[in-house]
Predict the structure.
Amino acid sequence: MSRRHPTVAEDEIRGTAQGTAPVPLSVLDLVTVGAGRTATDALRTSVAIARLAESRGFHRYWVAEHHSMPGVASSSPAVILAHLAAHTTRIRLGSGGVMLPNHAPLVIAEQFGTLEAMAPGRVDLGLGRAPGTDGATAAALRRTDRLNEGADDFPQQLAELTRFLDDDFPDGHPYRRIHAVPGPVQATSPGGVQSPHRPPLWLLGSSGFSAQLAGSLGLPFAFAHHFSAQNTIPALDLYRESFRPSAVLAEPYALIGVSALATDDEKEARRQVRAAALNMIRLRTGRPGLVPTPEEAEAYEFSPMEEEFANSWNANVIHGTADEVRSGLDDLHKRTGADELMITGNAHSGDVRLRSYELVADAYGLPAAPAVS
């Protein structure tokens, strides 16, 4: 029986800039949990931000896989995306990303095939090769201590996942009769009707490896500028130089993750990002916890080394009033030539995060949210 391969339309990848924004704007959500708050609170904030983003013309909303971090409740992207799909109708939803070496490719194909069935034509599958956690937790996830093996095998794992998504293992392959369901095999079953589309694959990275691989495969690329700013332009250059047109993309398409926080008052923005920097200091020194309040950060005595780290970290966080954040985003776009800016606004309070996206939308004149009847 002939097989009908699912396809990815280029307009499922490329967005359209809204208002006066230079490129499409999107959201990256880490589902951060602040001190005194619960994961339930954080997930309610995610729903509120996703609904705001949809109503104001943001292009896509991604969640990132992290593990064993009390202040980050995004260990299960597929579960969170299913929840967000139930509360939105138009915005693209996706992973930024799923860490492929942590999972069997068939499991990811099944999860995202299910998401595609829940939200047809608006699901992205972004993939990373890092563990999204420390080595011990990665070993527990993967049931092995051979962690380098997973990263080194990333191209092979990616190829296997793609085969499962397309349901096109060749004759004689040991997985030829194994099918990811929901998926294309349903269209070839007697009486079967199945969507011809599948989630677009994106490669994520913070260095050159995934940039070059994405380019050689003609896939869209997402770079983690928010924690690897010094590598942004070299990685984007490598992606563009390596790019080969594919059935998915005729030309390169790269987005960058940007840490940005807008507040009504510049001083308040500084208070918020300093608390977020303290949270990162604790994470980097093996003391991960909930995101501290600005008051806790103000009372904390930073050592000279911690002060230096906080200042360096916040130098790459675009923060301030709405106009200051808009100016910073515009400058970053001019320097990098990114095709899309994906904003992550980290703060202790969900209300502060929600207000930040609202202020950014206002600053760029994005479509006004419809009145609530």
